[in-house]
Amino acid sequence: MGLLNTTRPLIRHCLAIFLLTIHTDLCFGRNIQASVGGKSSPFRAEKEANSFLQRSSRHKRSLYHECYVEGCSFHEVDEVLSYEGSREYLYNMACNQWPCVTGCTCAKAHPGGNPGSGSHWRRCDDINECLTNKGGCREDQYCVNAHCGYSCPACTAIANCERLICTTASNHQCNRCNFDRGGQVIAYQRVASGGYPNRVCEQRCSWRPDSKFCYPGRCPGTPSTCTCAPGFGGNNCLAISSQPTIMHCLAKLQRIVGGAERDTLEADCGAVTAPSTVYVGRHIAYNRLQMTWDSSWIGPTAADWPRPYYINDFRVGIVTASTTWRLLRGGSVLRSGTITCDIGHNRDNPDTNLHDCVDHGDLTLPALQHGDKLEFKARATNGGYVVINNHDRSNGVVTQNPRQYYQGSEVIHTAHFTYDLRDPVHCSVASSCSSKIMEIGPPYTKNGQIQLRWPGWSDEGSGLGRYEYVVYKLQPYGDVLGMRSVTPVMSGSQNVSGGAGMVDVTLSEPGTYCFLLTVDDVAGNYQRARRFLIYDDVNNVTVDAHQPLWADSAAANTSHLWQTNLQNSLGTGTKISLKWPGRYRNLFHHQHKLLAAIEPYDPPIAAGYEEVTGLPPLQRSRQAIPNTYGIMKVETVFAVDHAGGRNITTPSDTWTAVPDVTAQGVDLDIPRVDGDSVRLWLRAFDIVDNFVQEEVLLHVDSSPPVVQNFWLNRHGVPALAVHHSSDLLTMRFEFEAFDDHSGLHNIHWSLQDFLNSSTVHGEGQVAVRRPSVLHPECDPPHCACIPKDSECYFRNYEIVPDLSKMDIPVGSHDHDYVFVITVTNNAMLVTTVTFQITVDESPPTPGHMQDALSGQRDLDFQQDPQLHAWWDGFFDRESGVQFYQYGFANRCLGQDEFGIPQPEQIHNTTGKFGSWTAPAAGTYFCTVVAYNPALTLSHPVCSDGITVDASPPSVRHVKLSGYHARPGLVSDDGGNVWIVNKDGEREVVEDPPESCSLGL
């Protein structure tokens, strides 16, 4: 019992495990399921289920059954094989079913415990392919082993290496550099670097274009070690720094006449720089130059500078020789040329021997000046070429590169010839003195006594010698003045040593004069100078009255009196244009051409010694003086006021010259507004300052006249547009017309048919109304005065057509007409206004009215004395209803009691209702008429009346139903006697007895 108690828990646990095993096998086992009723069942068959409770007997099975039926685990295999055999079996099985990739070999693994079969029974060990022939990598690659494989990275690059080898990433070297043609024919050489052999391809001087051939010179290593031969330098020693040698040099100027040499002048150029200059006189015109010289230059020899293998050919020497010349003036080159020695040599055929040059050339020079230099330069230049062998081809074929040329040096020897051609000079030309080349006084004068002086002359060469002067009166030749075959007025001369430097000249006739001065130096060089002068003390400026002075910008149809455009202070707007063609003249100056151009002198006068150009007042030059009929200057000045010019009667001193006197007109910027007046003064001058002065007065108006308040008037009522009658003569038109700037010029009217404007019923003029002598008043606003001459004009006008102006005086009912007013101001600016008129002869049609507030029903009685009436239904088919008149009275009003102006107690209104306060109780009537725009009234319409009763109310004839009274007599406060019956009805007793009355 104790054991049972002790083992009961254990039994209970075992039973639970057993049931759990059965349940698990029944639910999740892989055995064939029982079939219940032919259908699959989740429960075991009975026999199979009982087998769980029976002791099983185990028999030893085969390796196939244990591994492939029971499950190939180490435990199952171990039941058939030994321990080691089981592990070997599972290892082989893993290598077969899970083989290693190429590059690895399969080896035994030792998993812990007794695991089942799988790849964990083997491992994959790496095979190092790099141990055998670099794994097959190329020589420019190295082998790098990896797990189950390897790679072949490229060797580290070496610049300019043609064949690269390596065994590791750091162990690389060049087996052969680029352009290695064997022996000394190499462009790069292998050298060690960083302790590694053949690590660098180092460039050498060679034929390659990226290297140096360095000749003539030596290059033992890299291009940086290139050393050029003496006299050579630059890249590849292609620059020659040593100059050729000129041993003999002579320059000659020659004058050749008919092929024969007449004059020769020599200058030595044996030195690089000429020791002095050779001066050339002005009187010999040399026409040829000749140079004689020799030069040489010898280059380096092959013995001193051996040629490297890549130098194919080398030649240097003199390649060019020439003579250049320049004509110099100050620092400027006036002319230049070259005389080339034909030595038969050039840079492809240099001369290695002594070179002689003897040659000449024609010398054509421009006009020479003192101090001009003729410079000669003998030039020799060395140079040559070198040819390089090209070893670029790898097949051993050697070619030659194109020739490379040496940049040579030039040697220059110089000779100078200086021309001494200086004529005498005046300080005003040579420097900046204030003296004139001749002093003759004012160039335009009325004084015939002239003092001629000539200070300021000098000669830096041989010195001054003599002065010669001649005075001519110039004569006209066509359009110019000249001195052809003209006898001098006077002439003379003075020596410098004994002369006073002045002479007095008397002029007796008006004209243009020439003063000619010739200044000689001791060597025979000379300078001529001319000055000009106009003298006239007789003639004056005249006015041709047949030629007008006018403002062309002003309106022509106002006789150029009114300017009809404006301009602001910024110049925006039309200019005022003033013209005077042919009006002003100096006939003597014009006919004798005193102001014409002057012919040049022959031979020509040197620049600066004649006033070629220049205009008055400072100069009389050869240049023609612009003029018209002898008038050479016109000046203008203007002034503006707003008072018709009355405030601007004197010109200011701000005269402005007309830019172009030949235009005989000028356009002026004159700011102005409407109503301004502009006065312009003009002065016309001749050359000796005679002038005439005239003036022009303009008035400004750019705006057309104003026409306003244009309408019909009837019965004193303005602003009508409908006429009451087909009789057009009964029309009365009113309007305002005015122009505050220029006033009115004329007024024209016409009456036209509206539908056909060619049908004109009438037309005429309306006189412009102005104050008269008898009625000088001009009271605003119906009259105003303009600035010009304070002219005054009335503004209000009336037109009443009459038979003399009306061709068709009768119109038609219900027809339209147009009244046209055209008003022109004194500036001839026009305003046209049209006004449409309708003829309506019929009165409005009457309507109806009510005694009540507007819109309410008619009343007959009221206590309030404030009466109201309203009306409707009045109409006029042709022109409509313009307004109404109404009046209240104790009777209906007649048509003659209405009118314009409205009578007393009659009211005008455009509404359809009226009000009135009655003065006392009674019955009143409201009468209304309607007017159309022609002021024709309708027939009156009267209300049916309304009674105003202000008495208090009273009660009579009261009857009470069902009321019973005692019959008898009664009396009231008024003494009346009544008989009352039983029903309470009463009846007055006529003339009751006194006793009856008193007894009650």
TrEMBL record:
InterPro entries: EGF, EGF_Ca-bd_CS
Record keywords, A-Z: Disulfide bond, Signal
GO molecular function (one): calcium ion binding
Signal peptide extent: 1-29
The UniProt record lists the keyword Cell membrane: no
Residues in EGF-like domain copies: 226-237
Protein name: Uncharacterized protein LOC118431574
Species of origin: Branchiostoma floridae
